[in-house]
């Protein structure tokens, strides 16, 4: 697992706030950007991003995270890691882990680190992982130019916000397998 983590270039991070509202985010960096600090601890850098801070905000409220790393190119296999996360400023992280090199090669420097104390780690089977091919391209790492970051690609700025009263807080059903589901709450208690 340590060797697998060491060759990853991307990481999917699942987090939830104190109310259970979930978020999934992608983190990416050069090979080895996810650091294994010891047999039960890993860390990944947080770079300047889109300014939403959904993952970091969630971690402040609820430190439990789920990480998913997938090898789409060589072995078509994945690794799940669940644990308790804490946010550490870069300067404090460097004092605690002076052996972790800084990545400034592409104009990126970590603002902070997410340190994950591993509670469990297990395989994600390869059955439905597609094989992908590596493509070399020049990327605009470290940019703050909205157009090069994707801008308002989905046109979300023109969409009216969803008011809290309109959001459904919890699912109505839980999937039990074989396509069946059981009702968790009645239709009358549902808010749409």
Structure commentary:
This protein is mostly beta strands. It has one domain (2-152): Electron Transport, Fmn-binding Protein, Chain A (Pnp Oxidase, Chain A), CATH 2.30.110. It is built from 4 helices and 9 strands; from the N terminus they run αββββαββαβαββ. It has helices spanning 2-6, 54-61, 90-96, 146-149; strands at residues 10-16, 22-28, 35-38, 41-46, 64-71, 77-89, 112-124, 173-177, 180-183. The strands form 2 sheets. A 7-stranded antiparallel beta sheet has the order 2-1-5-6-7-4-3. A two-stranded antiparallel sheet has the order 8-9. A hairpin with a 2-residue loop joins β3 (35-38) and β4. The radius of gyration is 19 Å and the shape is globular. 14% of the residues are buried.
Strand order of the largest sheet: 2-1-5-6-7-4-3
User: Per DSSP, what share of the residues sits in E-state strands of 2 or more residues?
Assistant: 25-35%
Q: How many beta-strand segments?
A: 9
Q: State the CATH topology.
A: Pnp Oxidase, Chain A
Q: CATH class, please?
A: Mainly Beta
